[in-house]
Specification:
Length: 237
């Protein structure tokens, strides 16, 4: 895109202090293109990142439509297909690739990413992704939500705690996941996904003040700096 066009299109966010040249160089992988991932990828396309790598093996189901950004005509399609098509209409300058497979099977697709968004719905895959980011020194922006609560965390290699520095609850259904059977509403999804984007913007501008945020519909936001756990088997093993 020419510089004048770039300035025009993004003039309002440049006015807000965003470094558009930096945003326009980002290659973003979105792992999980559902409740969080549809919103995260949409916002990244609006912001004008260089590339989006969409990874999700699922197809659009009717029960997704209360919170995931799909149309009724998308029912039965791969989520990555429907999302790519929609985002190309938002911003045709973003290079979009898609993988309708489990992320573990397409590990090499993550390689070009400058940042990875965890928009997953299960702990097992989340742990795999966290391990991948630690091993490959990739920045990870995690989002998770269930019903009226959610959390957001950024992992910056060598600087902040990884997702496993804070142990997961023993019962995987207790927290930190969003499985098919959980309650899921559009407001929680929207808030968590947008805070993931805020984290991304803050990271890009070296303005991260807190690496962990929890959200509860009843109690609002809590901001914390999660310390690196030197006993963590993943980032200090
Ligand atoms: Zn750790």
């Amino acid at each position: 895109m020419k510089l004048t066009e770039l300035k025009n299109r993004f003039s309002r966010q440049i006015k807000a202090g965003f470094n558009q040249a930096k945003i326009s160089k980002q290659r973003c992988a979105v792992v999980g293109v559902g409740g969080l991932g549809t919103i995260v990828s949409e916002k990244l396309a609006m912001l004008g990142v260089k590339e989006l790598i969409l990874i999700d093996m699922d197809m659009v189901d009717k029960s997704n439509l209360n919170r995931q950004f799909f149309y009724e005509k998308d029912l039965g399609r791969y989520k990555v297909d429907a999302t790519k098509e929609k985002l190309e209409q938002f911003n045709s300058n973003v290079w979009i690739t898609k993988q309708p497979k489990p992320v573990q099977d397409v590990e090499s697709a993550l390689k070009p990413a400058t940042i990875i968004f965890d928009c997953l719905d299960n702990i097992e895959t989340r742990q795999w992704l966290n391990k991948y980011c630690v091993k490959n020194k990739k920045v990870l922006v995690h989002g998770g939500c269930s019903d009226v609560i959610g959390e957001i965390q950024i992992y910056i290699p060598g600087k902040t705690s990884c997702l496993e520095c804070l142990p997961y609850p023993e019962d995987p259904n207790e927290n930190r996941s969003c499985a098919d059977f959980d309650a899921a509403i559009c407001t929680t999804n929207g808030i968590v996904a947008n805070k993931q984007i805020d984290m991304f913007i803050d990271w890009l501008h070296n303005k991260i003040k807190f690496n962990w945020i929890s959200y509860s519909r009843n109690n609002g936001m809590r901001y914390r700096n999660m310390k690196i756990n030197t006993g963590c088997k993943i980032c200090h093993g």
